[in-house]
Write a structure and sequence with these properties.
Elements lengths: L13 E3 H22 L14 E9 L13 H6 L6 E10 L35 E2 L4 E2 L12 E3 L6 E3 L17 E4 L1 H6 L32 H4 L10 E4 L10 H9 L12 H11 L5 H9 L4 H28 L2 E3 H21 L10
Antiparallel strand pairs: 1-10, 2-3, 4-5, 6-7, 8-9
Helix pairs in contact: 1-6
């Protein structure tokens, strides 16, 4: 049962059990997203000392930024140095060094790493640092237009974000499957026109064709661009299926081209956002509830530790039985139900304490 029952102002607010379970699942998904994004972050240490970090979550402080001096800051500085400011989340960017406290933000000293070079000359900025996204140049979330529900997709080269309806081409699959593909926006395909030969937008992995802008050595028979006779020259946003980096031509001439265009790092498997999230999730294991509980129990005696673990397991079982019973009966879950559940659990706990012998912590059994 998933429908919401309407109530009057005088009635007690109610929610179906199915809705509660759905909300819990949504919160768990959001937690997984946060872990995948921020699992690599140390919120107490500025990343400046790491140089131009290969990939990290970045933020733009709209309170401190101005259109002439764009800046980006790491997660730790957003948390410590720009508290109570208007800070925009930029997701992740590659090869960026934290700007907090340099000459662009001289009025806002960095509390975590005060001594920094005046400028990070290798940092690259786009409209995202102004709070502007897509070809429509809208802010996100957009407070004026009802477009926020349209999913935004990041170009893997320029790292700008685009509304799916502004890509210039229809999505090649169901919209909920777009997260399994990477895109290269039309502007970047125009800039690096040989990329159109790798378009997989219709579910077909195209064999690359020769690009007029690519000079291929005549004796290089292993070049994929040279071996294909397709003449696909239409410039548009392209979609790339999982594993596309392994399907790129890696001949000597193409590898040289990637170096000249500063694309080699982008075409490396380690640059994939999926790889970053995998590493972040692995490092965020200390956020797992089981590990937090285990750490909390370390200083308890053996007997107390068993008692706590027994209580946790009993609570999990009782809550699960309670929710399943409500879900199976299609009943709504009210505040009174929740109060009754915890009251009964507390009474049951008291009965167990009265009938169960709990030895002292120094017991040697």
């Amino acid at each position: 049962m998933s429908s919401i029952r309407t109530t009057t102002d005088e009635e007690e607010p109610i929610v179906t059990c199915s809705e509660l379970l759905e909300q819990i699942e949504d919160e768990e998904e959001e937690l997984d997203r946060e872990r995948a994004l921020y699992g690599n972050c140390d919120v107490d240490t500025c990343t400046y000392s790491q140089g131009y970090v290969r990939r990290q979550p970045l933020f733009a402080c709209m309170t401190c930024n101005n259109n002439d001096q764009l800046t980006g800051i790491c997660a730790a500085c957003a948390y410590h140095c720009h508290v109570n400011h208007e800070v925009n989340e930029l997701y992740t960017k590659r090869f960026f060094r934290c700007d907090c406290g340099n000459f662009k933000l001289s009025h806002q000293p960095c509390k975590l790493y005060p001594t920094k070079d005046p400028e990070n000359i290798l940092n690259k900025y786009n409209d995202n640092f102004r709070g502007i996204y897509c070809t429509c140049k809208c802010s996100y979330p957009n407070k004026e237009k009802k477009i926020n529900d349209d999913e935004m997709i990041q170009c893997i080269i320029c790292e700008d974000w685009f509304h799916s309806q502004h890509l210039g081409v229809p999505l090649p699959m169901e919209e909920n499957e777009i997260n399994q593909m990477d895109i290269i926006c039309q502007a970047c395909v125009t800039k690096y026109s040989f990329l159109v030969n790798y378009d997989e937008s219709r579910g077909v992995i195209l064999q690359p064709s020769i690009d007029n802008n690519v000079t291929v050595a005549s004796n290089n028979s292993s070049c994929l661009l040279l071996s294909n006779n397709n003449n696909n020259t239409e410039i548009h946003t392209i979609f790339l299926r999982e594993g596309w980096r392994k399907r790129l031509c890696r001949c000597v001439q193409c590898s040289k081209l990637y170096d000249e265009l500063n694309l080699t790092a982008i075409f490396d498997d380690d640059d994939a956002i999926q790889e970053y999230e995998k590493q972040a999730l692995a490092k965020s294991e200390n956020l797992d509830a089981d590990k937090i509980i285990a750490d909390s129990l370390e200083n308890l005696g053996y007997v107390r530790k068993l008692e706590v673990l027994h209580g946790i397991n009993e609570f999990k079982k009782s809550l699960g039985d309670f929710l399943r019973e409500k879900a199976n009966s299609d009943d709504v879950l009210t505040a009174e139900d929740v109060t009754t559940f915890f009251t009964n659990l507390k009474e049951k706990r008291k009965e167990q304490q009265q009938t169960t012998f709990i030895p002292p912590d120094n017991c040697k059994f």
